[in-house]
Amino acid sequence: MIKNASPNGNEMLLNGKAPLPGQIVQLPNLAKTFREVVAKGKDGFYKGRVAQAIVNLIQSKGGVMELEDLANHKSTVVEPIKYTYANEVTIYEVRRSHSLSTLSTILNVTSAPQMDKASLPKAR
User: Fold this and answer.
1) H-helix or E-strand containing 35?
2) pLDDT on residue 3
3) How do residues 53-69 score in pLDDT, each as one tens digit?
4) DSSP conformational letter for 47
5) Coil, strand or helix: which one is 90?
6) Secondary structure (3-state) at 72
7) Which DSSP state fits 82?
8) How far apart are CA 53 and CA 46, in angstroms?
9) CA 49, CA 36: separation in Å to the nearest integer?
10) Which of 16, 19, 92, 99 has the smallest CB count inside 10 Å?
11) CA of 47: how far to CAs of 1, 30, 54, 57, 71, in Å?
């Protein structure tokens, strides 16, 4: 699947297979991308070679992204909300999503003491 996702997908494989734990993988194109971001800041990602590669890939899959779409991108940093379950696990979520409230409800329901039918009130 990764081979078909990107023209560089094969770079993430060793001899055509996913690397095993402990195997060393070299990713020269990714390293080049990181160097560009370090040297040029966000423009190293949203403009130039990296942006063009992203647009080319998306367009090759039928997408309609243009270089201007990336160049005009503005990110907003938001403070995540958090939920701590059983004083052990803290879950963070971006405010616009409802998955944290759903997950916290599931965790609370599944960890609640189990009731059997005999302990439930009878319907009248």
Assistant:
1) helix 28-40
2) 64
3) 999 989 988 999 999 99
4) S
5) strand
6) coil
7) E
8) 10
9) 9
10) 16
11) 28, 16, 10, 15, 6
